[in-house]
Design brief:
The chain is α/β, with parallel strands linked by helices. It contains 11 helices and 20 strands.
Length: 369
C-alpha cells in the first residue's frame, strides 16, 4: 500500500461533466483540458474515464501529453495548445491537432508533407501566443494553398473573465474575435471559452469549449462563483480529488518542546503530535507550515512547525485514539469535514490551480467510486 496517494472520484467527475454539458448544450463540443497531469489529478486515469464517458475532444499543452493520450488508446481529436519545437514536428500524427500562430510554423510543417489539421490561435487581448488580427488573412491564404494542411479550428483565449465581476474586457475580446474570423468558412470550428466563460456566457460558447478546472470540481475563482449566483445560474460542482496519507508515528511532547526545523513551533502545553510522511517534495507547499490543517478521524488537526522535504508534523492532542497507520486527508473530505484547495492556496499566497497542479506526479492516482 502507498503511504501517500491521490483518490479521484469517477461519480463526481461524471456529475461535473454532465452539468457542464447540460449548460452548454449538445451542439457545442466539450473539449476536456487534461494538461498539467490533468490539473494534478493524473492524466492517464482522468483521460481514460473521460473517454469512457464519451468525451470526444481533448486539449493538452505539449506533444508529450498528446502521446500519453495516444498510449491510452484515445482516438478522439487532441489539440496541442502549447509550443511544439519544430524538430518534433515529424512526431505529430492523427488525431493530434496543432495550434499554429505564425507563418514560420506553417512553412516548416509544409516541408514535412504530412496531412495535419490545424487550429489557428488569434490574439485578441491576452498578449500571449497568438497571431495578430491583421495577419490572419495571410495565414489563411497559406493554409488554403497547402495540399497537406487543413484549418479545422480558430480560437482565442480571454484575459479577464475569471478574476473580475466586469464583462467589459471579455466583450471587447469577443467582438475582436468575431471581426477577425468573419470571413472564415462557417465549417471551421470556433472556440473562445474556457471554464469560467463557458459557465458565465453559455450563449457565446460557439462550436467548442475548452473546460479544465470546472471538470475537476472547482470554480475558476470566487468572482466566477459570485457571478453565477448573480445570474441565478445553478452549477453545483464538486471537487473530485482527495489527497491522503498515513500517520507514521505518534509521540508525546512537553511544554516548551520545539517542533521542526528552525524551532519555529514551541509547545505551550504538553500534548501529542503525529508525524506524516509527506512534504514539499510531494507538492505540499512549504509555505503551509503552521498555516493549515489536515483531517484525522474527521477532525481538523493543525500543521505545526515547518513543512520539510518528506515530512510534516500535526498537533493531535485534541483527537482521542490516534494511532500510527491512521488515514489522513491533506486535501478533500473526511466525513462531514473538508480541506479545500482554496484554503491551502490562501495559506501559501497562491491560487487553487497551483495547489492542484503541483501535487507531484510520482504519487499514485487511484480511481474511487
Amino acid at each position: 500500500m502507498p503511504r501517500t496517494w491521490i483518490e479521484v472520484s469517477r461519480s463526481l467527475l461524471q456529475s461535473n461533466l454532465t452539468q457542464i454539458q447540460d449548460l452548454i448544450g449538445t451542439r457545442t463540443i466539450l473539449g476536456a483540458v487534461v494538461k498539467a497531469n490533468a490539473y494534478g489529478h493524473g492524466i492517464d486515469l482522468v483521460s481514460g474515464v473521460l473517454s469512457e464517458l464519451d468525451v470526444r475532444f481533448f486539449c493538452v499543452d505539449s506533444l508529450e501529453e498528446a502521446l500519453t493520450l495516444l498510449s491510452q488508446g484515445i482516438t478522439a481529436p487532441i489539440l496541442i495548445m502549447g509550443y511544439v519545437p519544430p524538430e518534433d514536428f515529424h512526431r505529430l500524427e492523427d488525431p493530434m491537432r496543432l495550434c499554429v500562430y505564425s507563418q514560420k510554423s506553417l512553412d516548416l510543417l509544409e516541408e514535412l508533407h504530412k496531412s495535419l489539421k490545424i487550429h489557428m490561435k488569434i490574439e485578441t487581448g491576452l498578449n500571449r501566443q497568438g497571431i495578430s488580427g491583421e495577419n490572419v488573412p495571410n495565414l489563411l491564404k497559406k493554409l488554403e494553398a497547402s495540399p497537406a494542411l487543413s484549418l479545422e479550428g480558430v480560437y482565442t483565449h480571454y484575459a479577464n473573465v475569471e478574476d473580475t465581476l466586469s464583462s467589459e474586457f471579455y466583450k471587447l475580446q469577443f467582438v475582436r474575435f468575431q471581426e477577425y474570423t468573419h470571413s472564415i468558412s462557417p465549417a471551421v470550428l470556433r472556440h473562445s471559452c474556457a471554464s469560467a466563460a463557458a459557465l458565465l456566457y453559455p450563449d457565446a460558447t460557439q462550436d467548442l469549449v475548452r473546460v479544465g478546472i470546472a471538470l475537476y470540481g472547482y470554480y475558476s475563482s470566487w468572482q466566477t462563483l459570485l457571478s453565477l449566483k448573480e445570474r441565478q445560474r445553478k452549477v453545483d460542482l464538486h471537487p473530485i480529488l482527495t489527497w491522503k496519507t498515513r500517520i507514521a508515528q505518534v509521540k508525546r511532547i512537553q511544554k516548551g518542546d520545539r517542533v521542526g526545523y528552525g524551532c519555529t513551533h514551541e509547545a505551550l502545553r504538553k500534548g501529542k503530535i503525529a508525524i506524516l510522511p509527506v512534504g514539499y517534495y510531494d507538492g505540499y507547499d512549504r509555505r503551509n507550515g503552521s498555516q493549515t490543517h489536515v483531517l484525522i478521524r474527521s477532525t481538523r488537526a493543525p500543521v505545526i512547525g515547518r513543512v520539510a522535504m518528506n515530512m510534516i508534523v500535526v498537533d493531535v492532542s485534541h483527537i482521542p485514539g490516534v494511532n500510527s497507520g491512521d488515514e489522513v486527508v491533506l486535501l478533500g473530505s473526511q466525513g462531514r469535514v473538508s480541506i479545500a484547495a482554496e484554503e491551502l492556496a490562501e495559506a501559501a499566497g497562491t491560487i487553487h490551480y497551483e495547489v492542484l497542479t503541483r501535487i507531484s506526479s510520482h504519487l499514485p492516482r487511484v480511481l474511487a467510486d
